[in-house]
């Protein structure tokens, strides 16, 4: 499912126009992004949690040259599915 299909589904289920559903989806994504930027966790009970994880610095290898390179530590967004989402999918 791509973004247009998701917007259409939200519009249908919430009795909104596609434009309103698109703005609502964009606002939700922006809100989650801003919360993660502030190192907050976003929990949607029954659905799951968005949170930041830490990736340690490590040594990698350039596949083209074979030389070792240093890869910096980074914060990465992660998602942990909630219990009811897991039960619904399985």
Automatic annotation (TrEMBL):
Highest rank taxon of the organism: Bacteria
Keywords: DNA condensation, DNA-binding
Gene Ontology biological process terms from the UniProt entry: chromosome condensation; DNA replication initiation; DNA-templated transcription
GO MF: DNA binding; identical protein binding; structural constituent of chromatin
GO cellular component labels: cytosol; DnaA-HU complex; HU-DNA complex
Pfam family, one: Bac_DNA_binding
InterPro entries in alphabetical order: Hist_DNA-bd, Histone-like_DNA-bd_CS, IHF-like_DNA-bd_dom_sf
Stated family: Belongs to the bacterial histone-like protein family.
Function comment: Histone-like DNA-binding protein which is capable of wrapping DNA to stabilize it, and thus to prevent its denaturation under extreme environmental conditions.
Name of protein: DNA-binding protein HU-beta
Organism from which the protein derives: Thauera aromatica K172
Classification lineage: Bacteria, Pseudomonadati, Pseudomonadota, Betaproteobacteria, Rhodocyclales
